[in-house]
Amino acid sequence: MNINYLELARERMPNTPLLINVISQRVRQLNQGHRPLVKPEASNMSNLDIALKEVAEGKMSAELGFAPQPKGEDLGVISL
Question: What is the pTM of this model?
Answer without folding.
Answer: 0.79
